[in-house]
Design a protein that fits this description.
The chain has three domains: 230 residues, Clc chloride channel; 226 residues, Clc chloride channel (Orthogonal Bundle), CATH 1.10.3080.10; 162 residues, Roll (CBS-domain). The chain has a four-stranded mixed beta sheet. Strands 4-6-7 form a three-stranded mixed beta sheet. Helices cover 54% and strands 5% of the residues. The longest helix has 42 residues. With 837 residues, the protein is mainly alpha-helical. It is a multi-pass membrane protein. This is Chloride channel protein. Its main location: membrane.
Length: 837
Amino acid sequence: MQWRDNQRGLKQFSQLSLLSSWDCSHIPPCPAFFVCFVFLVEMRFCHVAQAGLKFLSSSNPPISASQNARITGTHYTMTNGGSINSSTHLLDLLDEPIPGVGTYDDFHTIDWVREKCKDRERHRRINSKKKESAWEMTKSLYDAWSGWLVVTLTGLASGALAGLIDIAADWMTDLKEGICLSALWYNHEQCCWGSNETTFEERDKCPQWKTWAELIIGQAEGPGSYIMNYIMYIFWALSFAFLAVSLVKVFAPYACGSGIPEIKTILSGFIIRGYLGKWTLMIKTITLVLAVASGLSLGKEGPLVHVACCCGNIFSYLFPKYSTNEAKKREVLSAASAAGVSVAFGAPIGGVLFSLEEVSYYFPLKTLWRSFFAALVAAFVLRSINPFGNSRLVLFYVEYHTPWYLFELFPFILLGVFGGLWGAFFIRANIAWCRRRKSTKFGKYPVLEVIIVAAITAVIAFPNPYTRLNTSELIKELFTDCGPLESSSLCDYRNDMNASKIVDDIPDRPAGIGVYSAIWQLCLALIFKIIMTVFTFGIKVPSGLFIPSMAIGAIAGRIVGIAVEQLAYYHHDWFIFKEWCEVGADCITPGLYAMVGAAACLGGVTRMTVSLVVIVFELTGGLEYIVPLMAAVMTSKWVGDAFGREGIYEAHIRLNGYPFLDAKEEFTHTTLAADVMRPRRNDPPLAVLTQDNMTVDDIENMINETSYNGFPVIMSKESQRLVGFALRRDLTIAIESARKKQEGIVGSSRVCFAQHTPSLPAESPRPLKLRSILDMSPFTVTDHTPMEIVVDIFRKLGLRQCLVTHNGRLLGIITKKDILRHMAQTANQDPASIMFN
């Protein structure tokens, strides 16, 4: 049977299934080739693990060597290289399993299929014992509920930490401007809540709150007061930034940055030890507060996802079901990322969709349920803490009561175009700066870089009231519609006494001097935010991108909204306004434009669509604004994709060289597996192990002389028939364990991977049986398999490596990094520059 490049679909799946020597008629009809293919491969692996599985027909015999030889004639097969005993499990486990076998080294990729089968084996073992005693039944129930327990603990911890971060960040942000004498732990707003001397016009001033100028020089107004407050603002900003970067550098280097690119890579199967550890959690929580309070152009929403994943990783070690299985642990991390977005934006449903759309690599249905539950628990805890005192989960929650009109779709789409252009510019500029940081001496001084960026930010931000504000408070002010109780300069409209019609809402009015002044200040703030965000994202402090991007979009949207509002007021007789905008009616809502612009700019940077619309919808609580949001977000994505399909997180993954195969990236080249596999034509031969002809010294020498992560096992050098695959780490651990625990194992001991030990002379030392660590069913393809199919297999099955055969004989190996190098070459990039070191 030959697979052609242009053949796809269910017909090929049914033909392949006939080659597996068992009936596939019990498999439910699949609408897509991939679902069927994954189901076939998963069942094929578990068939190798134990031929008598309940869902397999008992009349179908295990695959034989002759059948296997026929199967290897196809383009890709699961091969064993010999007959399979029906009682042999996947790892052919010994009575005493070798400690450490089956684990992974740092900066290595997990084997998803192997981990899945390990979990199936564990589950069958628990089910078979649960009727033996009440204790075994209790253990079975504990195992079944452990998934819900771990996501509950993760949600509780994420909500509690998010509330703590919000409260601390608000207090330390206000600390740059002054202090509350009546209660030092109160921020500015809380300090003036109970004051009886606060006026409506100056609601932010009260005797209990003292600025630094009042405390130090005793002046509340005048040039001296302004200069002293300016100096203290810069001093506190530099102090917070220096303390944050110092803690990160000394205690937890992994606590810097957003964390989402690394979490995406970890969820795809990559191991980064310590990235989700307790020290990272502790330092990230503390330094996130300091970084936000320093006034840098960053947000805490992205790092909150990292914080939640740290909680999920730590709690998963309390349950053996997750602590011993890397694939199951990633299900917890997917739920934790949903909880992180839930507390970051007060959007539980948006958090689940964010985990599904943006970060998760493997997302089964039960993970969807647990992600929803974790997001629910986290949001409930944060709501109970009520960090902002407004009974809302976020500071910038808004509600609009004015409908939008059809003609407004045009400015909404323009905001989408701006968001796409901003996203494309930011990704290119930020990646260029980060690459320069990596390649120059400037990157060797992260503390100095943070201090310089913080100093420039503080010096420029203080004179402008909109850049001096905390970014979340700025977004809140831009989102808020002008009402009778608003005292912001953005609401400084002239009252028109000649309005012919009065409605419940405040009608559109001509802009006053305060509005025009605010527009100029917002334009300067927009330029400042655009430039500083490029240089801030990626420095060695916790730095999120959600809030700065939303702030840029909100500024642009508010400016456009005011422009459209004034245009409709002065030209209400134009045909586009005539039907909807009567004189004295409340026609345009500038705050709505700010919200749409924020969504468009965030979508342009991250290329999120569905989850972003739902997050912003949950922020506003209005169903009728979904269409403008969808129009702006899709426009921003289309415009951004015209300049490059990568979002900022994928770009940083590629910059750092993480082994991540992005499902969004298409592979369209016509190369074959033989063109990519190693060894190449001029390379030394492939390092392989033989089934029963090598000694312990031979294997240790091969391990010491090479840096490969695993070795194919063949029957003999002459036949090159494949038997299985042994990992380097497993070989090392197994040999060390055998030397310690088994008598008679020496360097000249014969190593046997076969089921039966060959006959040896009487004076020979005791042989070492290592069949238990051998993967008897490595995934193989033929040398003529198109690379388009190989890339698809690696993406959808999460493989670490794939062996290449020709007529059943081993030719070479393709690893995940080989595919990434090949994809870089086809894109005219230097393969050596993109690989993780």
